[in-house]
Amino acid sequence: MLMIGRGNAAILSPMKVALVHELLTMRGGAEHVAKVFADMFPDAPIYTLLYDEKKLGDWFPKERVRTSNVQHSLLHAAYSTLGQANNHHLYLKRFPAAIEAWDFSDFDLVISSSSAFAHGIITNGRPKHLCYVHSPARYLFDRTHDVLNRAGQGFFGRLRRKFLERTFHQLRIWDSEAADRPDHLVAASKEVQRRIELYWRRESAVIYPPVDDFWFQESKQQTANSNRPQSQSPIPNPYHLVVSTLVPYKRIDLAISACEKAGIYLKIVGEGPAMASLKRMAGKNVEFYGYRSKDELKDLYRSAQVTIVPGEEDFNLVALESMACGTPVLAYRAGGPLETIVEGKTGAFFDAPTAESLTHALREFKRENFDAAACRSRAEEFSRQKFEEQMQHAMQKVMESK
């Protein structure tokens, strides 16, 4: 019987397990899930196409990480030198072959965490392959035209667009074959499950990503404030919050435009390739905080009027982290947040992916209509313990399959 767990009471399987996560170059929801897998199997090596030790070495120590031939190539050396670590489109053609080159024959089980390529590893049934799908590659399907339109801008836009059009066509052919390779698929949400069925024609089970226990705990700042006389307690300026990787599809531009129109102060936490363009469009009511430690972020969540999720999300752990801290969420009415936010109790929605729709929702939003305890209670339904128990069942199932 396969048993897994954490802490002193953990019972770890004697099986040899390998973990795969395609890119370890930035922190996000998918990397959070990969870290949970790494904690569940502390002896398992972690295979990845590209690895940034400076950004993720504390989550995934270098001695556990096994990189691909792309990491060691001259191209990747240029890639790092040019500061293009988040722009992996230049290397898309090389990723399938790099994924397929790994040999897992010495393992009993491989758990892959896939947003584009990790599902394509080759195991041929030995070892078993359980794939946790954050989403089929969105730039190959429902976001293709958005990506191509952005790539087509600028002096070399026409060449970039032609290159990506050919690359995406080749990758779709590979993806259709690779989608049949995992022995069992787990989807991060019902929305992702729908895409798996639509694009891959495969069944999957839904296991929601977990919100970390950390977000429910009292923050250091709260403890310090509680020891001050009441007259000395700080009164924070009211602000709205965005926590996100700064990439175009997250639609941070909508939050900036809407908050400017509504005269609302906005704090943005996160890093990414779109930061420079977002800063150019932002006015005096917008402040960029870059990367923040978990303690700092917890205080930002707790003091915010609302956390805004402006883009269409596969799942979105930020919404759960915010609710765990007692702060409601205002999200675009699509994708994963529909499965976590209880409208009118733990958050609200805006209906169209436009600044006008979000501006209207911001003006209608009243913080006093939402109870912090109700937000925390909802977030508790997505606990790490529940996630690990469900994953244990999925692992048991795949190991018993023929």
Count of DSSP-assigned helices:
15
Shape: globular
CATH architecture of the largest domain: 3-Layer(aba) Sandwich
Biggest sheet strand order reads 5-3-1-6-7-8-9
How many domains comprise the coordinates?
Answer: 2
Give the mean pLDDT: 88
Structural class from helices and strands? alpha/beta
Classify the beta-strand content into a percent band: 5-15%
CATH class group of the largest domain:
Alpha Beta
Structure characterization notes:
There is one protein chain. Helix content is 38%, strand content 14%. The chain is built from 15 helices and 15 strands. With 402 residues, it is of the alpha/beta class. Helix 12 crosses helix 14. The chain has a 7-stranded parallel beta sheet. The longest helix is centred in the middle third of the chain and has 22 residues. It folds into 2 domains: 169 residues, Rossmann fold, CATH 3.40.50; 168 residues, Rossmann fold (3-Layer(aba) Sandwich).
Keywords:
Rossmann fold; 3-stranded parallel β-sheet; 402 residues; 7-stranded parallel β-sheet; 14% strand; 2 domains; single chain; globular; 15 strands; 15 helices; alpha/beta
Quick overview:
The protein has 402 residues and is of the alpha/beta class. The chain is 38% helix and 14% strand.
List the helices and strands and how they pair.
Elements: E1 17-21, E2 23-24, H1 29-40, E3 46-48, E4 50-51, H2 53-56, E5 65-67, H3 74-81, H4 95-101, E6 109-114, E7 128-133, H5 144-151, H6 157-178, E8 184-187, H7 190-200, E9 205-206, H8 220-226, E10 240-243, H9 252-262, E11 266-269, H10 275-281, E12 286-290, H11 294-303, E13 307-309, H12 317-324, E14 329-332, E15 347-350, H13 355-364, H14 372-380, H15 384-400
Parallel strand pairs: 1-3, 1-6, 2-4, 3-5, 6-7, 7-8, 8-9, 10-11, 11-12, 13-14, 14-15
Helix pairs in contact: 5-6, 9-13, 12-14
